[in-house]
Every structure is written in structure tokens, then in C-alpha cells.
Amino acid sequence: MTETDLRSRTIRSLVWRLFEQGGSAIIQLVVQVVMARLLTPSEFGALAIMLVFVNVGNVVVQSGLNTAIIQAPDVTDEDFDTVFWMSLAISLVLYLAVFAGAPVIGDFYGLPFLVTPLRVLVLVLVVNAYNAIQEAIVARGFDFQKTFRSTVVAAVVSGTLGVGCALMGGGLWALVIQQLSYQVTKCLSLAVQIPWKPRPAFRRGRAWVLFGFGWKLLASGVLDQLSQSVSDLIIGRVFASGELGLVSQGKKYPQQLGTLLDSVIQPVMLSAVSRVQDDTDRVRRLMRRALKTSTFIVAPSMCAFALVAPILVPALLGPQWASAVPFLRVYCLAYALLPIHTTNLQVLNGMGRSDIFLGLEVIKVAIGLFALVVAVYSFRNIYAIVLAAALSNMICTFINAFPNKRVVGYPYLRQLRDIAPAFGLAALATAAAWPLGSCALGAAGTVALQLLAFSATYLLMAWLLRVEELYYLLRVAQQAMGGREDS
Fold first, then answer.
1. pTM (two decimals)
2. What pLDDT was estimated at residue 230?
3. Secondary structure, 3-state, the chain
């Protein structure tokens, strides 16, 4: 694939990823706001405990083999069939394990009512075994418009069902139905658009080849998910489920915002890198572009969110969620660094270096667990636990970036220099908009004024200082609009 063709397909894919992520996120945000006003922190805390097991299971079902299919230079329909049957078998084993262990989990957390909802929610693992293949096909073909359609449809359907159940007093079941119906609807919607259907074919030789690459990513994904989730498990055990609900909501919104913005770029970059992995210079240029562009968007978004959170959260979610604001602000700081994590890891994936990927995860899990143990046993304070998680996250940026000095010639200090302008401008914009929080304009007026001042300061300074990422995004927008007009 030529440089021009790769750039053109990448830009089109970025636009569709933006539509996909943005459209789905807006709908889900509305749904989450409504459900947060209808349900209690304790119910969201119970969901957070269940999602730990579901999320770890999803990594086992989807992560390694799915990425192996995307990264492989050439794949056949039999490869897709082989991976599907492997993923399905794994999902069924995991489902039976969680089904059998649900009573023990409920007793451990003193929440016996979790048993049946957990057994129902974990059915999502079986659904995702099928959906993982569909998403791999989409990623390989840069056909992200199909994912856009399916995620928007899924967000509407699941949101309607979840809110309807909450209005009827469904409580925790409203959250379970919303989570499960989203994945089922997304899977069915993709199945309508993608011609692939599983056949009774299994190639043992290809299974070993794909597993040889994927098992390291699988182990890495499980370790990463456990490191992210272990704090929820400990908070749920040591503190009340209501406090876990506050922490989980304080984490969820920055996480979703950061992932929304960053994931527009990262999956597209993985597909692009896997196609030019033999050309280190092109990979380095792709990586640098992805890191700078993603940070230019994510860093100010996180700063702006933290800025308006004390007014926005109680106004949108209700006064019962005001105590989540300190946690939200800490996680905004942590997720502002998301691009440096994901960009480095995606490059290692795209270059086929899953061996390095696994080693990094082992080191990061050790750091995260050490910080968590110190926070729990030295302070036994929920704020200390959250701060420890954020601190270990910042330390791990260096861990993720270190190998790429050798792999693609892009060292950590150079990466920091590349993203420093975005953080500097975001800090300046925050300082300019902060005093406006005391204006007596009502919640909506004050938030709007602060965001307007923040955005104007950030963009104006980027324009005056001729920050390259701003001009790149403008060029991408022009090319995307030109491509749409041509089509």
C-alpha cells in the first residue's frame, strides 16, 4: 500500500471512528445521566463489582486472538472460523465458572442479591465471542462506518430498555439489561452488515500460530484489566457499596471521555502500523502523529472536565453524586495521559512485539499492586486508594514508552517534548477559565461560560503559537469533507 493510499484510508477511517464513538457516546451519556438520577450509588457500586468479572472475561474472550487476526499480514475465512470456535469455547467455560462462583462472590461482598444478576450479565461473554470476529473484520478492512451504525443502534436500543426498566423500579436489573442489550444489539447489527458467518471449520495448525501471537496479548490484557479492577474489588470489600458507586462513577466519566477521544485514533493506527511494520521510519511517523494528535485533543478535554465538574456533576446527576467530584478530578488527571499509554502499546502490537507487551504488563501490575497495598494498609482511606491508582498510572507511562526507543527509535523524553505543548496550553486555559466558576449565572450558564473561555484560550493560543497539531486537524477535516463531497 502506497503512502498516499494509506493516508487516505486512515483519514476516512478516523472520520468514521469519530462518528461511531461520538454518536454512541452522546446517546449513552444521556442514558447514564437519566439512570444516575433514577438509581442510587449503592446500585452502581454493585454493578461495578459485577463488571470486574465481566471485563476480565471479555479480555480473555476478545483480546489476544482478536488482535492476532487484525495484526496478521494475511488471513483466510478458515482463520476467522478457527478463532471463533476457540473464543466460543473459552467464553462457555468462563460463563460456567462465573455461574458456579456467583454465590461465593455474593457472600464475599455481603451482597447475596448479586447472584442472579451476575449470572445473567456474564452471558455477554458468549455474545462477544462472535462479535470479536466481526470487529476484527471491520478493523482489517478499515470499514468503521459499519461499527458506527451498529454502536448507534445499540446505544439507542439498550438505553431505551435500561431507562424503561429503571422507571419501572427495576433497580440493579436496569443496569444489567442496559449492559447486556447493548452488546447483543451491536452484535446483531454488525451481523446484518458483515457477510461472514461461522462454519464448522477448525485448522489446528493456524490455531497454534494465532495463539502463539495472541496468548501474550491475552495474558497482557488480563493483567492490565486486573490492575485496573483490583481497586474496585478491594473498595467493594473494605468500604460500603455506596462508596464504591461514587468511585466507579467518578472513574467512569473521565475513562469514557478519554477512551472516546483516544480510541478514534488508536484502532485505526494499529491497522495502519500492521501494514507498514517493515518500515520503521513510517511506523515512527505514524506513532508520533497519533500521540501528538490524540494528546492535543484528550489533555484539554480532561482539564475542562475537571474544571467544570463541581458544578456539572450535581446539576446533571443529582446532589447524591456530589461526593464523586474529587474522584472524578483525580481520574481526569490520570486519563489525560491515556494517549501515551495506548500509542506505545498499539505500536508494539502492530510491530508484532507481544513478548515486550506482556513483560510491560507484569511490571505495571507489580507497581500498581504495591501502590494499592501501601494505600490500603497504611492509610485505609478511600481517597488514598484512588490517589495511589493515579500515581501508579503516571509512573507506568515511562514503563510503556521505554521499549519504543529501541523498537522504532522514539524515546520517552522525545515523546514528553512532543506532548508538552498540549498540556501547557491546557493548564493556561484552565487558569483563564477557573475564576469564572464563581459567576452567579446558574449551573448551565456558568458551565457554558467556563467551557467557552477555556476553548477560546486553548485554540487561540494554539493558533498564535502555530501548534502543528491544530493545523493538522484542520487539514484532516478539509480532506475528509472533500472526500465526502467526492463520494
1. 0.81
2. 80
3. CCHHHHHHHHHHHHHHHHHHHHHHHHHHHHHHHHHHHHCCHHHHHHHHHHHHHHHHHHHHHHHHHHHHHHHCCCCCHHHHHHHHHHHHHHHHHHHHHHHHHHHHHHHHCCCHHHHHHHHHHCCHHHHHHHHHHHHHHHHHCCCHHHHHHHHHHHHHHHHHHHHHHHHCCCCHHHHHHHHHHHHHHHHHHHHHHCCCCCCCCCCHHHHHHHHHHHHHHHHHHHHHHHHHHHHHHHHHHHCCHHHHHHHHHHHHHHHHHHHHHHHCCHHHHHHHHHHCCCCHHHHHHHHHHHHHHHHHHHHHHHHHHHHHHHHHHHHHHCHHHHHHHHHHHHHHHHHCCHHHHHHHHHHHHHCCCHHHHHHHHHHHHHHHHHHHHHHHHHCCCHHHHHHHHHHHHHHHHHHHHCCHHHHCCCCHHHHHHHHHHHHHHHHHHHHHHHHHHHCCCHHHHHHHHHHHHHHHHHHHHHHHCCCHHHHHHHHHHHHHHHHHHHC
